[in-house]
Amino acid sequence: MKVLITGTSRGIGKAIAQRFLEQGHTVIGMDREPASITAPGYCHLVLDILEDCLPDLEDVNILINNAGVQNTGMDIDVNLKGTIRITEKYGIQPKIKSILFLASASASTGAEFPEYAASKGGVVAYMKNTAQRIASFGATANSLSPGGVITELNDHILKDPELWDAVLKETLLSKWMTLEEVADWAYFMTVTNQSMTAQDVLVDNGEAARFNFIW
Predict the structure, then answer these.
(1) Which of 48, 57, 93, 197 is deepest in the core (most CB within 10 A)?
(2) pLDDT higher than 90, residue 52
(3) If DSSP codes are grouped into helix, strand and coil, which group holds residue 208?
(4) What burial letters (b/e) apply to 59-93, b meaning 16+ CB within 10 Å?
């Protein structure tokens, strides 16, 4: 299948792209940065999903909206408006089979930076709207809301033993997701899944479920 993924130069987007390539899919990546993947079946487009003129791409079967920023003052513009722009251009069409939105645990908890949390909450609401509109094509739309993920963007936490210990204590399982795990979830939700739609899947190692019982 033809898979379009935004934000593929590093981190979650790169891991997801590699997972699909391993399974023999054709992958088109979009990012403001140059390609960091060199593999048969991969095409990379250097562009800004919010600002650049979007090229015409026919017959996208799977769309994965991953590109985003955090606490930049542009969170709502990029994470929400940019995602809407990509989805309306490539996702609302008869050849689409599945659309996945990378949201965040903060979409339901309200944690993290205010504009970031608001942008991801908007993504979840827009996902549900999208699911309604592509159902007539027999397609699914869902969002994946990870909690903490081990990426280079979180090096300031990962390399600070005291901060890392404090962060892990906020989860039930005392760990964060790996990039490979996020990629597996993305593949399952877009390829294996045929019936779940309009759902936000929270995968946060039990952070939202953690509580202190005082009686």
Answers:
(1) 197
(2) no
(3) coil
(4) ebbbbbbbbbbbeeebbbebbbbbbbebbebbbee
Query: Can you list the domains of the chain with their CATH numbers?
Result: 2-149+178-203 (3.40.50.720)
Q: Which residue has the tokens 């929270």?
A: 202
What is the rounded CA–CA span in Å between residue 189 and residue 103? 14
Is residue 213's pLDDT more than 90?
no
Instruction: Provide DSSP, 88-106.
Output: HHHTSSTT--EEEEE--TH
Rounded mean pLDDT of 33-51? 96
Strand partners, 42: 27
Question: How many Å apart are CA 108 and CA 103, to the nearest integer?
Answer: 10
Q: What is the pLDDT of residue 59?
A: 96
25 contacts: CB under 8 Å, gap ≥ 6: 1, 2, 3, 41, 62
Other CB atoms within 10 Å distance of the CB of residue 7? 26
pLDDT digits (tens, 9 = 90+) for 138-191: 999 999 999 999 998 899 999 999 999 999 999 999 999 999 999 999 999 999
The residues near 31 (Cβ < 8 Å, ≥ 6 apart) are 6, 7, 8, 9, 13, 44, 45, 46, 47, 67
- Is pTM, for the whole model, over 0.85? yes
